[in-house]
């Protein structure tokens, strides 16, 4: 019997208990699954999201792994009591939703769609946008999500540059790494997409000096993490026109406070952290698969590298 | 020496003379190219667009072919003096631009982008859109452009249905033909895209009875030809909400008169025939390639079927 603790906010339990039981059944495991934990020493696995009942992992002496429901684990990694193997969520639905949101918002800007959405005033402004192959897009972060988005944009013929901490090699994408590479990518990007994990190195990577490296009029799209951006530096750049528009799905504080300057800014589009959501069905299958692997002595998929922070 | 008459409006000559001469040189042809025609009997090929100097093709007794600069040839086919072989323009840039415009406008509706573009009012409406794989899109017309758009949407995981006069077989697309097939496609489409050629059979195909077959709240996107739609039937359907939005790039009369109801309608987006444009560079290469083929005794590419009308 495998004892699994569902250590996440109550709303997640409502969403996950049925699909997670089904997924665990489907991989043939003999298990208990509960959101309440009478005895931490009995627990074999924790399915985890921040904001739930567990903040101290010390009592879970027999647990084999913590399986995060979230793709971004920066809040979890910083918990010093967590020394167990930790896995990130990698969910097909997550990448699909992200590709759709990113592609849609890139095309909105590429096609200059707003001037038609807002300009229904009887004036026939016949000027076609350039083709995608004449447009350079940079994706910072080439993990599962960044890579999927970069490839989808390349399939639409955009000239796609990618940047990541470790050098990657992805078909159809011109890949860069290190600081020199970042400078080159920033200097060419007409549309810049942030899909980096949040680490000490990437926090406020979009700051005054990196913004200055962008072409005048560049567009920023952030479906990654709010703190990747220095908000004040971004607002200054929007006001000078150095950045012409920012489409932001994630923020330092969420929900974004109704008084925040982003809401009323004409060059900012706020979307409420909807670029991509973990879907209970597919996420449950991933968790069940990983527990089955661990029970069979195989390595866990999507293990977090604590040193890198993701 | 091959004598080529450029029979198109003057503005086209300004745009085309340099790239077309270059393209003809590049395929090794010995030619003259002129927009003026002292002697029709000397002309071997006509590069043609409506609105230029030629409306009667009878005097061109030695011409081998008419090469249209336009993809849509309905205005040309109806000219009874034209009995020469006629080719349509098939331009890579044309299909690329169309795929970008169609994908962008589909994603705008799929993602519910407008409520964020218009709703920057401090309210955090956290509701993610469905995934593309949960959304059914229909493409009417599976020629070069329709097929390219259908495949691009399928690559984004949309459930794509296609309909054409002749039954097609395209990977990843569920293809239908004939009237029964059209009824099935209309009944399932959440977003309907018109990329049909304009013929006697397709004129006003979007009429009261076919609109009634659509699901309530369907979205219509027309980058094909204006007369595919009965405008009055569309306006009625928009006003009852049976069609929730129409994004229209083409119209019965262009430019769309500033007094037309479409301009002020909240559920209509007008774009000024920009979904796709023939690009002088790539179009010139296609024309040069086709003339070289004809001179070498090969069949012309993209020959128009006069009976079908395209």
Itemize the secondary structure elements and their pairings:
Two copies of one chain form a homodimer.
Chain A: E1 2-7, H1 10-26, E2 31-34, E3 45-48, E4 65-68, H2 74-77, E5 86-87, H3 92-110, H4 113-117, E6 136-140, H5 144-155, E7 159-163, E8 174-176, H6 178-188, E9 191-194, H7 208-213, E10 218-222, H8 231-240, E11 243-248, H9 261-264, E12 268-270, H10 280-295
Parallel strand pairs in A: 1-2, 1-3, 3-4, 4-5, 6-7, 6-9, 7-8, 9-10, 10-11, 11-12
Helix pairs in contact in A: 1-10, 3-5
Task: Please provide a written account of the structure.
Two copies of one chain form a homodimer. Chain A is 34% helix and 16% strand. The two termini of chain A are 31 Å apart. In chain A, the strands form two sheets. Chain A has a seven-stranded parallel β-sheet with strand order 8-7-6-9-10-11-12. In chain A, strand 4 (65-68), helix 2 (74-77) and strand 5 (86-87) form a beta-alpha-beta unit. Chain A has helices at residues 10-26, 74-77, 92-110, 113-117, 144-155, 178-188, 208-213, 231-240, 261-264, 280-295; strands at residues 2-7, 31-34, 45-48, 65-68, 86-87, 136-140, 159-163, 174-176, 191-194, 218-222, 243-248, 268-270. Chain A folds into two domains: 2-91 and 278-295, 3-Layer(aba) Sandwich (Rossmann fold), CATH 3.40.50; 93-270, NAD(P)-binding Rossmann-like Domain (Rossmann fold, 3-Layer(aba) Sandwich), CATH 3.40.50.720.
